[in-house]
Amino acid sequence: xxxxxxxxxxxxxxxxxxxxxxxxxxxxxxxxxxxxxxxxxxxxxxxxxxxxxxxxxxxxxxxxxxxxxxxxxxxxxxxxxxxxxxxxxxxxxxxxxxxxxxxxxxxxxxxxxxxxxxxxxxxxxxxxxxxxxxxxxxxxxxxxxxxxxxxxxxxxxxxxxxxxxxxxxxxxxxxxxxxxxxxxxxxxxxxxxxxxxxxxxxxxxxxxxxxxxxxxxxxxxxxxxxxxxxxxxxxxxxxxxxxxxxxxxxxxxxxxxxxxxxxxxxxxxxxxxxxxxxxxxxxxxxxxxxxxxxxxxxxxxxxxxxxxxxxxxxxxxxxxxxxxxxxxxxxxxxxxxxxxxxxxxxxxxxxxxxxxxxxxxxxxxxxxxxxxxxxxxxxxxxxxxxxxxxxxxxxxxxxxxxxxxx
Length: 406
Hints:
By secondary structure, this protein is α+β, with helices and mostly antiparallel strands. Strands 5, 6, 7, 13, 14, 15, 16, 17 and 18 form a nine-stranded mixed β-sheet that branches. The longest helix is centred in the C-terminal third of the chain and has 21 residues, at 385-405. It is globular, with a radius of gyration of 21 Å. Helix 10 (313-324) crosses helix 11 (326-334). The mean pLDDT is 95. The protein contains twelve helices and 20 strands.
C-alpha cells in the first residue's frame, strides 16, 4: 500500500503537539508554513494524557531561571494563550495567585523567587500578613508573593479548538495511530502506525510520556530517559471550597523539581489540592494499581533514576507516605490552610508527569529538543509547557522550516 503524503507529521495530540500542528498549518503571512499536517495520536481523543490531567493553571513565569527556555516561552506563551482563549471562547480567568512563606525560614527562598519574577517581567509584589488575609483569608503565612496575572484555563478546550483549526486548514487529526517506526529517507520520513503508513517531508515528535521511545523508533539513542511521576490530588468538598479563593502555593524547595502541594481553583469552580509526586509504576499509571512491567523495569534499571532516588530518598519517602496516608496529605495542606480537615477532601483523578532524566541522575530542568535530518524531537516539556505551548510551537516551526524549504 502506498503511504499517504503530507508536509508534516506530528506525533501526539496533547497541547504541544496540537499547537505545533496548528502553527505549521498557518499561512506564511501569519508566521506559519502553510503546511498540510497530519497529527498521529494513539488514543481516541485529544489531550488524553498530561494535558487532560493537569491542574489547569496559566503560569506567570515567576519560578524559572531568567533567560531559560522555560522563562522565555512561558512569558510569551501566556500572552498568546490569553489572546487565543479570548478569540475562540475558551474559558480562562486571570484570578491571581499567592506563594506563601509559612515561617521566617522560608522568606529568603521566597525572595529569591520574587527576584526571578522581577527579572522575568512578571507583575508581582511581596505582601505581609494583613494583605495576605485580604487575598486568601484562610491561608497561613508570614509573608507572600502576590502574582495577580496568574490564572486558570480549560486546556482540554484549548486542544479541541486547536484540532479544529488544524482540520480547517486541510489537516487531519488521526486517532488510533500509534507510531511503531519512523524511517528517515532522502526528502522525507516514512512513519508506520497502527492506522496505516504515512509519508511526510518532516516530522515532529511530541509524544510526551513516550517521547523518548518514539525517538528510539527512529533509530536514535536516548540522550535522556522519561521517568513517570504520578501526581495525586484531592478535591475540596463543596462546603469547603470557600477556604480557597484562587491559587495558594507554598515556597518550593529549589532542590526538587516539583512545586509542592497547593490549592488550585479550576474554571468549573472546583478546588483541587495537591499534587504529591511519586514514581508511577506505568507511564500511564494514573491509579496506584496500574503496573506496566516494561515501564517499571525501564525506570528501576536506569542509572539516572537510581542516582536520583539515592540523592532524594528522604523527600521521596515523604511523598510516598502522603500517597498512602490521607492524614499525612492533609497535614501537608494544613501548613498553607490550617482549617483543612480530612473530611474536607475527596479523592480526585491523578496525573502523570513525563520528566526527562539524565544518566547522571540530574533532572532535565528546561525544555529539551533533539533534531535529526528530518525529525524534531520534543523530549522534555513538563510544566509550564501547557502555558507555553503556543510559544513552543513557534520555536518548533522555526526548526522545521528549513526541512520543508529544502
